[in-house]
Design brief:
The complex is a heterodimer of chains A (about 350) and B (about 230). Chain A has about 350 residues and is an all-alpha fold. Chain A has 14 helices and four strands. Chain A has a domain of about 220 residues. In chain A, a hairpin with a 6-residue loop joins strand 1 and strand 2. In chain B, the strands form two sheets. A six-stranded mixed β-sheet of chain B has the order 6-7-8-3-9-10, with helices on both faces. In chain B, about 45% of the residues are buried. The chains are: A mainly alpha (about 350), B alpha/beta (about 230). Chains A and B meet through strand 1, helix 8 and helix 9 of A and helix 2, strand 6, helix 3 and helix 4 of B.
């Protein structure tokens, strides 16, 4: 919604001011690569942050743009991870094809569950996803034990093939690969946010009945959002599988559902860059606190409460607001100076 | 003003909220270019009738034909797409969005990005584009809702008590807007303001206890407020 209205025609026209926002995803990529060199021993942490960001971005579509909280996101993450694991264990060795297969699984799951779940009101949606998560765990742990190895999981690191340009079996190359993927997704995510689709998502969250008055189908809009969220989760799942070289049912545990919700809140719901800050904040706190105490969730819980009460717009929202305030102060300072000169 | 072509026809409509029947065997028609006003006391079934025509309430019986097509089973958003826009009496807009963003949403839905006709009816909207819709007065909200509805050039605009709660001078302004809008768009309005009804209506349907109690077609009767006894 960044178009402006031309005085003459009244028709929305693209803004004349130079929008440098498109540089954001590139700045993120540059920042991540810089961090990787500043903290070389934290390479795997930064890789995990990138992957987790994709996962949080998916949840952010549901939570931030559409107003749905899901307790079933680990199911979709796990589905993506197991798709890649099945691919490496039983089909082939090309990691790009494994990722593609996970994306396809995401689309199929969206096609099956989206039209059913998106008919439900908020609380029911939350719970039905939690139920799906429990079913998912039981399925990989018990029902499909013959192909999933149950709790022992699937190990396939040795089966991952080298890509022609980038050997992502090497951790530094995998990091680069994940950063490139994240940058592409961020570009698309930013486009979604600024486009009619983002506006329609937000408006459906505010008042879906009013959307029907205008001629929109809120149900269809919610299914599109669910599909984006699910495919982002399965994409993150496939990258998890490639990163760790194995998967087990723990990835899809119900208890982990709250983690992605906290990361989304921590970063700032309904924003483009909130998920990145949420992933950084959540995994960072977990990384630091878990060195000193086994129950790191205690500190995450306290921080989440503090954030919700004092920084309701999350880390990114806080930075954004502070930035705007500083910008306004500088502007008013310049204005005051120029007025003084004129006098 | 009218060219006698029937735009919308409701035949023997029965509408209920669950088991509670509210509208009984209602038949009415709206010609292209007309301004039809529905009057009646609170609870007479006027809003229920319009909501049902717009697809927001299922019909228990009867049919609604729009441009000759049966729209009984069409969903509300498809009815809106086909050319019937309904403006609810609660004057709800997207409060967190600016006027510009509200209009943009409507443009996305209708694929009509020419706002000039809207600004010609409501010049004030052009000066308030950056304002959050939640900060608008009742009259301004009504303007915005009408502006949003007019994008896409609907054939029929259904307005549910558009002047409810508005100051007299705003109602006077709206009356002239209704007259202007009616030159290009057919209007069906639920209204309780007698002078306004007398000033804009081509025909008046009077509703009582879920039924059409009378249809007033003579201009002299409309101006003479012959429908007053039904209020």
């Amino acid at each position: 919604m960044d178009s402006s209205t031309d005085k003459g025609s009244g028709t929305p026209k693209p803004s004349r001011s130079l929008d440098l926002g498109f540089l954001g995803p590139l700045a993120v990529a540059g920042g991540l690569i810089a961090l990787r060199f500043i903290f070389p021993d934290k390479l795997s942490f930064f890789t995990e942050v990138c992957i987790y960001t994709l996962y949080v971005m998916g949840n952010n579509v549901l939570m931030g743009y559409l107003g749905y909280a899901s307790f079933g996101q680990p199911f979709y993450l796990s589905a993506g991870a197991y798709s890649a694991a099945f691919f490496f264990s039983y089909i082939g060795s090309n990691p790009l094809l494994a990722i593609l297969m996970s994306l396809l699984v995401g689309l199929v799951l969206s096609g099956i569950f989206g039209p059913i779940f998106m008919r439900l009101k908020g609380n029911y949606f939350t719970l039905v996803n939690a139920a799906l998560c429990a079913i998912g765990i039981f399925t990989v742990e018990k029902l499909l034990i013959g192909i999933t190895n149950g709790n022992d999981g699937l190990w396939f690191r040795a089966k991952i093939a080298k890509l022609p340009i980038l050997d992502i079996r090497l951790t530094q190359n995998l990091f680069l690969f994940v950063v490139i993927l994240l940058t592409i997704v961020l570009f698309l995510y930013r486009w979604m946010d600024k486009s009619a689709l983002g506006a329609v998502f937000r408006a459906t969250k505010i008042n879906s009945r009013k959307m029907r008055f205008l001629g929109f189908n809120p149900y269809g809009i919610r299914i599109i959002g669910f599909t984006i969220a699910t495919t982002l989760s399965t994409l993150a799942g496939s990258l998890y599988a490639i990163n760790f070289g194995f998967v087990n049912p723990n990835l899809g545990e119900n208890s982990r559902a709250v983690e992605v919700l906290i990361a989304t809140l921590l970063g700032g719901v309904g924003t483009v860059y909130g998920p990145l800050f949420g992933a950084f904040g959540f995994l960072g706190i977990k990384d630091i606190v878990s060195r000193f105490m086994s129950r790191w969730e205690f500190v995450v819980g306290i921080i989440t409460i503090l954030v919700l009460f004092f920084f309701s717009k999350g880390i990114w929202g806080f930075f954004n607001l502070s930035g705007t305030n500083v910008k306004n102060r500088i502007k008013s300072l310049f204005k005051a100076q120029s007025t003084g000169k004129e006098n | 003003m009218t060219d006698n072509e029937i735009l919308l026809e409701a035949k023997n409509l029965d509408i209920s909220y669950g088991n509670l029947a509210v509208v009984f065997d209602v038949s009415l028609f709206i010609r292209k270019g007309e301004v039809v006003v529905l009057v009646g006391r609170n609870g007479a079934g006027k809003t229920t009738l319009l909501r049902s025509i717009a697809g927001f309430l299922p019909k228990r019986g009867g049919t609604v034909l729009f441009k000759g097509e049966n729209i009984n089973t069409k969903e509300a958003y498809k009815i809106a797409q086909s050319g019937i826009k309904y403006i609810h009496q609660d004057k709800q807009v997207f409060s967190d969005l600016t006027i510009k963003e509200n209009l943009e949403l409507s443009s996305y839905a209708s694929k009509d990005y020419d706002w000039e006709p809207v600004f010609s009816f409501f010049p004030k909207l052009k000066t308030l584009l950056a304002r959050k819709a939640g900060a608008l007065s009742g009259g301004e909200r009504q303007m915005l809702l009408m502006g949003m509805s007019l994008l896409g050039k609907p054939d029929l605009l259904l307005l549910d008590e558009p002047t409810e709660g508005l100051a007299p001078h705003v109602i006077t302004d709206l009356q002239s807007v209704f007259k202007e809008v009616s030159k290009t768009t057919t209007l069906c309005i639920i209204e309780q303001n007698l002078p306004l009804v007398a000033g804009i209506a081509d025909r008046v349907y009077c509703m009582r206890e879920g039924k059409i109690a009378a249809e007033i077609t003579e201009h002299s009767d409309i101006v003479g407020l012959a429908f007053e006894k039904y209020l």
